[in-house]
Write a structure and sequence with these properties.
By secondary structure, the protein is an alpha/beta fold. The chain contains six helices and nine strands. The protein has helices at 32-40, 72-85, 105-113, 141-149, 155-161, 183-192, and strands at residues 5-9, 26-27, 30-31, 47-50, 61-62, 90-95, 121-125, 128-137, 165-168. The strands form two sheets. Strands 5-4-1-6-8-7-9 form a seven-stranded mixed sheet, sandwiched between helices. The chain has a two-stranded antiparallel ribbon with strand order 2-3. α2 runs antiparallel to α4 (141-149). The model has no long low-confidence stretch (mean pLDDT 93).
């Protein structure tokens, strides 16, 4: 497998953050999107952003291919479709509001994916599964589109149905998968810097 395409999932509405695109929020001297790009770029061959509103970046930005704000799986689907048309067999996904994700995310997901016939794996810690952090084969495009067409939205349901392998990540301080959903959580992340 060649290095996967990096996909930053930034399509959320940001309702708890005052409707500001989360990727544009400042964490220290950088935006959340810039921080994610800085961590993901060394781990992937190229990086794209899935966003449904304008975001500040020089990276290619793609919108959800399915309308209606269907959640992170719609972003994964758009990333997979883009990857397929650009001759990539896999994507590695990260959430834009999780700026401390591991700098060895991709290699660990690839290793875990060796336990799946198509190289499909997601991250797990003692806190549970982190389904938006995964390596996804483009072979999942049709099953994922069908899953969303049927009205399903839960990442965990899809990953379990397709027997995704899991890559185990250690508990860290700060938490590598700390998710920023509120101004208070942004303040906590700022203090960790």
């Amino acid at each position: 497998m060649r290095e996967p395409l990096g996909v930053i999932l930034a399509g959320g509405k940001g309702t708890r953050m005052g409707m500001v695109p989360k990727g544009d929020l400042a964490l220290g001297s950088e935006t959340l999107l810039a921080r994610c790009e800085g961590r993901l770029a060394p781990q992937s061959c190229d990086v794209v952003v899935v966003a449904n509103a304008p975001v500040q970046t020089k990276l290619p930005v793609i919108a959800d291919s399915m309308t209606g704000h269907l959640g992170p799986l719609a972003g994964v689907l758009s990333g997979l479709e883009y990857a397929h048309t650009h001759d990539h067999s896999h994507i590695v996904t990260v959430a834009v509001d999780t700026p401390f994700f591991p700098c060895d995310l991709t290699p660990n997901l690839i290793l875990a994916g060796l336990n799946h016939p198509d190289g499909f794996a997601i991250a797990i810690t003692t806190d549970g599964l982190h389904g938006t952090f995964g390596i996804w084969p483009t072979k999942l495009i049709e099953p994922l589109r069908e899953f969303l067409d049927q009205g399903h939205r839960k990442v965990r349901t899809f990953t379990e149905q397709h027997n995704a392998a899991t890559a185990v990540f250690a508990t860290t301080v700060p938490d590598a998968f700390f998710n920023i959903n509120t101004p208070q959580q942004l303040e906590i992340a700022t203090q960790w810097l």
